[in-house]
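User: Hello! I'm new to structural biology and keep hearing that structure can be predicted from sequence alone. Could you demonstrate with 60S ribosomal protein L8-like? Please show me the input and the output so I can see what each looks like.

Assistant: Of course. The first part below is the input, the amino acid sequence of 60S ribosomal protein L8-like. The second part is the output, the predicted structure written as tokens.
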Amino acid sequence: MQCPGAVCGICVASMLGLQTAPAAAAGGKAAPFDGTPRCRCWSPGPDSCHWGGGHWSAAAERSNCRPSQKVFWLNSHVRSDGSQLKTHHPAADLRRQMSQPAQGRPARFRALDVGERSGYLKGLVTDIVHDPGRGAPLARVTFRHPFRHGQQKELFIAAEGMYTGQPIYCGRRANLSIGNVLPVGTLPEGTVICNVEGRVGDRGALARCSGDYAIVISHNTDNGTTRVKLPSGAKKLLQSNCRAMVGQVAGGGRTEKPLLKAGNAYHKFRVKRNRWPRVRGVAMNPVDHPHGGGNHQHIGHASTVRRDAPPGAKAGHIAARRTGRRRGQAAVAAGKSML
């Protein structure tokens, strides 16, 4: 069917079995937009009749709108007098969304509610998945929604020993087992925990990397705080209401596996630009690095530099807190860590 230039919506209305445009549009007057879909050839142009705040272009008059032609909606905002305010295609929004980087879903606890404060909620581990860019595996946990009909799906950092089909309990009265989420104030001293909240309700912020864990050291019931030893060795004071998962983050020992050959290192660092191979400074020429040059490979001066050194000389141990061999208790602790 040939699209007439007088009334812009006839072809679409005939395809969809809808009523055609009002007679006022045939006389050249603008009619309010009634939500009728336009065909592909409908475009805002200055050289045709007005119907529903839109224009029929000359190219549309020469085209044939067949029933098989794809029909979609155009978001056309029209004033009461029929004049057009804004017209854009939904594909433009899609292209805009695709051009922006996708935001990954964070792996964190469920939002703190009265159910966890007073009792416990039961969830089920439905799957163990890999998250690109993260060393630790993630667990998909499904809960029954506490306030309305339906399910509540969460993404937890998996603890070592979790499996598909495992029941997970979250709350103050949950039992002490791997994967359960409890307030740190209810955990006995010496408990191994992970994914610890730094503040009440932040849904997990500490000890989240693969193989990481924290240890509950002591409780202070007078002010409601708990002292926890972090993976770095630092001791942090937390509110006893902060939640934590019992156990150690899965994926431990990931970095201990040897690469064995350069090809494995190539594929490992391929996604990280200019990270591999890394040439040593002493193997360079003196024009390329402060450590370069000489008849044999040596730095030739102290490896420590001051904090305010110029960019060309800022290489080596920058503003080192200490130099030389470790002595005393530091050497003993370093020897124990190597065992």
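User: So the tokens describe the shape?

Assistant: Right, they're a compact way of writing down the 3D structure. Reading them back into a model, for example: The two ends are 85 Å apart (CA to CA).
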